[in-house]
Design a protein that fits this description.
The chain is of the alpha+beta class. The chain is built from two helices and eleven strands, in the order βαββαββββββββ. 17% of the residues lie in helices and 37% in strands. α1 packs across α2.
Length: 191
């Protein structure tokens, strides 16, 4: 039985260059997310420092350009394994994030990527590449009863729907860095 969670690889050099970009970028501001320890329902259950990016940055940032080219190849491989998924006209969302979770941090609550809000209602697939190794701090999926450890270069693609509710597994000893975003339905939905 298929779980529609695909795993592939991105070159380690590309991952290292993305981490360097995250660490040294001075023209974008990182945003800190903090969960509410007294009521996760009030916050988003996420403790991270995110660098919000746009695909147009790839015109001037070689590391982003190299990554996005490899990501497109990964998405093509996903469509090869699941050809019906490729029947809908889609594109890589222009918005994506490079996220760092310090020890004890993570996206701690069960969640899925699609919603009714304008910014997430067109999401079709999710993509994520781990940029650091953290064998005890990967990602788990609720209904698929699946865990994937954070291994540098490992790229994962899965559906954005509630059927693929997931959360980060928290490691109190190691940090975790990843890049993540979405494949959106082209043209969006009719309101």
């Amino acid at each position: 039985m298929h779980n529609f969670i695909w795993e592939g690889e991105i070159d380690l050099d590309i991952c290292d260059n993305l981490v360097e970009f995250y660490d040294t970028c001075t023209y974008l501001t990182k945003k800190k997310y903090e969960s509410n320890p007294f009521n996760d329902a009030k916050g988003n259950g996420k403790d991270s420092l995110d660098l919000h990016c746009h695909t147009m940055l790839a015109k001037n940032e070689e590391c982003l350009d190299n990554y996005l080219k490899k990501l497109i190849q990964c998405v093509d491989k996903y469509y090869h394994v699941y050809p019906q998924a490729g029947q809908i006209d889609c594109h890589i969302s222009p918005l994506f994030n490079i996220q760092r979770y310090e020890p004890g941090g993570g996206y701690k609550v069960w969640h899925f990527e699609r919603g009714a809000q304008r910014e997430n209602r067109e999401r079709y697939l999710v993509w994520m590449t781990y940029l650091s190794d953290n064998p005890d701090g990967g990602t788990e999926w609720m209904y698929q009863d699946k865990y994937i450890s954070a291994e540098k270069g490992k790229t994962v693609i899965w559906p954005a729907e509630w059927t693929h509710t997931h959360r980060g597994v928290i490691d109190d000893n190691l940090s975790k860095t990843l890049i993540t975003g979405w494949i959106d339905i082209a043209g969006g939905f009719v309101n």
